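Quick question, first post here. What does this chain look like in 3D?
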Amino acid sequence: MTKPISAAAVSSIEAAMSRLIGRGDVQATFTIARLASEAGLSRATLYRAPELLERFRIAIASHPREVKSPASSADRVRQLEAEIAVLRGRETEDLRALRSSNRHMAQHIQVLSLFVRKQEQRIARLQAEPSESERGATLVAFAGPPLR
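> Answer (accepted):
Ran it through. Tokens below.
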């Protein structure tokens, strides 16, 4: 079983498909390599998403190969504003995820700091205890057969 692709890769592929199909360029060759390049991903990543590739193949098969008139400036502005809104939404989601990750890491740091403090206290307590030699322990040698 292949490893699934990330959500970010899926949205990159979907956006690239929309851009390629939306251009309606007759001379354009709609290939997996072109889609991968447009999405900024490797072809191997695309092949790990067969359902998206199938959607791409269906879309290009049903796409009319006629020349579209260039979009008006107002249409292009609306299109770019829509892309900006999508990117801002992704940015907000990314920031939310990063903040959550930072809180999680801060909690780990607090736990580890408490653990280190307890270990330091334990070390200090053990160092303060008198050692075996300081207690005056005597060693008694037993007479027995020589060791070989």
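The longest helix spans residues 73-128.
The radius of gyration is 33 Å.
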